[in-house]
TrEMBL record:
<protein>
    <submittedName>
        <fullName>Nitrate/sulfonate/bicarbonate ABC transporter ATP-binding protein</fullName>
    </submittedName>
</protein>
<keyword id="KW-0547">Nucleotide-binding</keyword>
<dbReference type="GO" id="GO:0005524">
    <property type="term" value="F:ATP binding"/>
</dbReference>
<dbReference type="InterPro" id="IPR003439">
    <property type="entry name" value="ABC_transporter-like_ATP-bd"/>
</dbReference>
<feature type="domain" description="ABC transporter">
    <location>
        <begin position="50"/>
        <end position="281"/>
    </location>
</feature>
<keyword id="KW-0067">ATP-binding</keyword>
<dbReference type="InterPro" id="IPR003593">
    <property type="entry name" value="AAA+_ATPase"/>
</dbReference>
<dbReference type="InterPro" id="IPR050166">
    <property type="entry name" value="ABC_transporter_ATP-bind"/>
</dbReference>
<dbReference type="Pfam" id="PF00005">
    <property type="entry name" value="ABC_tran"/>
</dbReference>
<dbReference type="GO" id="GO:0016887">
    <property type="term" value="F:ATP hydrolysis activity"/>
</dbReference>
<keyword id="KW-0813">Transport</keyword>
<dbReference type="InterPro" id="IPR027417">
    <property type="entry name" value="P-loop_NTPase"/>
</dbReference>
<dbReference type="InterPro" id="IPR017871">
    <property type="entry name" value="ABC_transporter-like_CS"/>
</dbReference>
<feature type="region of interest" description="Disordered">
    <location>
        <begin position="1"/>
        <end position="51"/>
    </location>
</feature>
């Protein structure tokens, strides 16, 4: 799957995106945003870009040992956009940190393009954007976007920086400092920076988590458009079910801690996806189904916690001979 922009993809318009229900029916023009699983089927089996197999991650902490992940198998195919959902503390960020080479699995295997993550990190082929944008406050937005070139010891490709500023709608703010930008603009700059070196893989950890709902929604549409143009293999960690569904080819739901893959939802909604689609019943059906799944997990966890509290209470009473 190439990373170059297919010429026929129109920009996502929040109010016209979504397209008619029949747009993917037989006889119509091929959908340039079709699920990469379908596209790669012709060329043989799809290539896994990201792979976790049998991954367990323990965090030993003094006398306590936190089991963050337990036997996680997860594959993201080349050019695919996968969203990772799950209750707080279930290990979503740990999955991303393993793929970014920031953590080692306790057991199991983590591969990015069939190699240990560190190999891609060293080659600067991995783009990462986290909730905290971490822009350099004293540098201009253009210099912040250009930073990966400097970190990699490469000459700054100014044309690429300009292209990214255009892609993220920040051309007019190239010379501004981060403090002169809104929160949403800073997150866009962080995404532009993550894209600077044409990464083969994009890891996004709640990149819009700190934004208000309206800005977040707008940036979701923009990210959908950018992904359509660039087709970079992307793994997004989010708490927002609508965001997960709007952007992804697949949504993977983890169980509460320790995280295991609980459910995989293929999102067959048409692209481009915009505001119109988010008002359609078929979008809400998927969102409601996944929300119910997460609510169920929370409820069973609360039940388990209550049970554990009652057990601890009984033990305490026994110790005191009551
Ligand atoms: N460096 C660490 N040391 C000790 N424990 C850790 C460390 N990193 C994560 N954990 C623990 O691992 C578990 C999973 O954490 P992680 O941040 O991956 O969850 P998450 O699903 O991303 O959470 P949230 O949705 O709240 O951001 C948590 O119980 C957390 O306390």
């Amino acid at each position: 799957m190439g990373k170059s922009a297919p010429a026929s993809i129109p920009p996502t318009d929040p109010d016209t995106g979504g397209g008619p229900a029949g747009s993917t029916e037989e006889g119509t023009a091929p959908d340039p945003d079709a699920d990469p699983r379908t596209e790669s089927a012709d060329a043989g089996s799809p290539r896994a870009a990201l792979e976790l197999s049998g991954v367990t991650k323990h965090f030993p902490l003094r006398r306590r040992n936190t089991v963050a992940l337990d036997g996680v198998d997860l594959t993201v195919e080349q050019g695919e956009f996968v969203s990772l959902l799950g209750p707080s503390g279930c290990g979503k960020s740990t999955v991303l940190r393993l793929l970014a080479g920031l953590e080692e699995p306790t057991t199991g295997r983590v591969r990015v393009h069939d190699r240990p993550p560190a190999a891609l990190v060293n080659d600067h082929r991995l783009g990462i954007a986290f909730q905290q944008h971490a822009l350099l406050p004293w540098a201009s937005i253009a210099d912040n976007v250009a930073l990966p070139f400097r970190v990699a010891g490469r000459p700054v490709d100014r044309a690429r920086v300009t292209e990214l500023l255009r892609l993220t709608g920040l051309e007019e703010f190239a010379e501004a400092r981060p403090r002169q930008l809104s929160g949403g603009m800073r997150q866009r700059a962080a995404i532009a920076r993550a894209l600077a070196l044409n990464p083969e893989v994009l890891l996004l950890d709640e990149p819009f988590g700190s934004l208000d709902a309206v800005t977040r929604r707008r940036l979701n549409f923009e990210l959908a458009r950018i992904w359509s143009e660039q087709r970079i293999t992307t793994l997004l960690v989010t708490h927002d079910v609508e965001e997960a569904v709007l952007l992804a080819n697949r949504v993977v739901v983890l169980t509460g801690r320790p995280g295991r893959v609980r459910h995989v939802e293929h999102i067959d909604l048409p692209r481009p996806r915009g505001g119109r689609l988010t008002r359609e019943p078929r979008f809400h059906e998927v969102v409601d189904r996944l929300t119910a799944l997460l609510d169920g997990d929370l409820a069973s966890r609360a039940g388990a916690d209550e049970g554990a509290t009652a057990q601890t209470g009984r033990r305490w009473l026994r110790r005191r001979g009551r």
